[in-house]
Design brief:
Helicase, Ruva Protein, domain 3; two-stranded antiparallel sheet; globular; mainly alpha
Amino acid sequence: MTNNQDERIAKMTFASVYPHYLAKVQKKGRTAEELHQVIEWLTAFDKKRLAQLIEEKATFEVFFQQATIHPNADLIKGVICGYRVEEIANPLTQQVRYLDRLVDELAKGRKMDKILRVK
């Protein structure tokens, strides 16, 4: 990834992407509650805090600065947007791609305990 891509991702607002996440999972028969559960697992943001961040139009940079990333997030592996998430060097870009990967897994019908890396 180039620095331009990293900067573009950092400046993107979570509020602009969230409706796409929601539409993607709902189109595949999953619920908003399941999406929120996945987001909360990764970031520790409850539904109320998530709504505040959307309302504030927080950038991904601010969003992930305020997040408490789950200790098992490094167990998220796979390819998203042509890149292996475990090999992305920029920490913010990697965290955004972690979220993208979890949303993809949810949309593909993966079981919640697998998505949330329950051992």
